[in-house]
Amino acid sequence: PKGDFMFRALVLALSLSFPAVGFAQDGDPVTEFANDDAAMAAAQQTAQETLPLFLANATDTEGYGIASAAVKVAFNIGNNQTEVIWVGPFAWDGGQGMTGLLANQPNFMDGLNQGDQVDFEGSNIQDWAFWQQDGTAFGNFTTRVIAKGMGENGTDLLNRMITPAVPADWK
Fold this sequence. Notes:
By secondary structure, the chain is of the alpha+beta class. The protein has helices spanning 2-15, 38-58, 141-147, 151-159; strands spanning 69-78, 81-92, 97-102, 117-121, 125-131, 137-139. It has a six-stranded antiparallel β-sheet. The chain is globular, with a radius of gyration of 15 Å.
């Protein structure tokens, strides 16, 4: 029920009690990578391979993502182009179907704004993030690739990432 999702999404958004939710910043810059960038392709593949573990551990029994979880989704914007943007909170139907709220302001998705509801398939997820209350995070495979090219700012961001990227106790 989409109405129920919107209500829960609002409750989840209002219940965030820690400020270090790195995926919901206004005005995030666009970072472009070539389609054949090996490091980015490997990061996206690892995110997809670990997605079932993430969904099993970061969603409740009804399929709603917990407040500190988000997914990075590639949306088709036409002309064989995509915009990759964080979505959170989100809900998962247990299969491929997902819905959620845009966590950033889109640059190329005409008519959509931060906070708007979007529907997508799990196969379009290119990354996931699971933030801890201390500001550290699991996942963020593509963010780790991006951060390596950001100098001091990237080093600070990488220091907040937990290694290994997937919790050892997830089964």
